[in-house]
Design a protein that fits this description.
Strand content: under 5%
Order of helices and strands: HHHHHHH
Radius of gyration: 14 Å
Largest sheet: none
Oligomer: single chain
C-alpha cells in the first residue's frame, strides 16, 4: 500500500532515477539500460505533478540530458531552480544552481557555484559538491 502514498511514490521514483543515472556513470557497458530506467522514473515523476515532484523531475531530467544534450540539461536546471524555489526546496535549488554553474563555466558559472555553495553553507552543509552529487548525479565522468 505504500506506493499509493503520493509523497512516497515521488520519493521512490526520484531515488530510483538518481541511482540509475549514477549507475550509468559508473558502468559504461550498461549505460543505455540505466539511462532508460532513469527515463522511465522521470516519466513517473511527470505523471504525478505536485509542487515538490516538479523540481525533482527537472533535476533528474538534467542528469539524463547531461549525457547527450547539454543545452537541454541547462534548460532543465534553470526550470529546476525556479520550481524548487517556488516549492521552498532551498537545497535542491542550490544544487541545481551549482550544477548549472558547472555546465556554463566562466564568470557566470563561478557566480552560480558561489551562490549555490553559500546557500548550502547557510544550512550547515560542509561539502556542497557532495550534496550536489547526491541531489543531481550524472554530470561528471566516472572517476572524477
Amino acid at each position: 500500500m505504500l506506493p499509493r502514498v503520493r509523497y512516497l511514490r515521488v520519493c521512490l521514483a526520484w531515488t530510483r532515477g538518481r541511482m540509475a543515472v549514477q549507475a550509468a556513470r559508473a558502468t559504461a557497458g550498461w549505460r543505455r539500460r540505466y539511462l532508460a530506467l532513469a527515463r522511465s522514473e522521470l516519466r513517473g515523476l511527470r505523471r504525478d505533478p505536485y509542487p515538490y515532484s516538479i523540481p525533482l523531475g527537472y533535476l533528474l531530467a538534467a542528469g539524463i540530458a547531461s549525457w547527450d544534450d547539454p543545452d537541454d540539461a541547462v534548460a532543465s536546471l534553470r526550470v529546476a531552480i525556479v520550481s524548487a524555489e517556488a516549492a521552498g526546496m532551498r537545497l535542491h535549488a542550490a544544487a541545481a544552481r551549482r550544477r548549472l554553474g558547472e555546465l556554463l563555466g566562466g564568470d557566470e558559472g563561478a557566480v552560480l557555484i558561489a551562490l549555490g555553495d553559500a546557500a548550502m553553507h547557510a544550512e550547515d552543509i560542509v561539502n556542497p559538491a557532495r550534496l550536489t552529487e547526491l541531489f543531481a548525479p550524472g554530470f561528471t565522468p566516472a572517476g572524477e
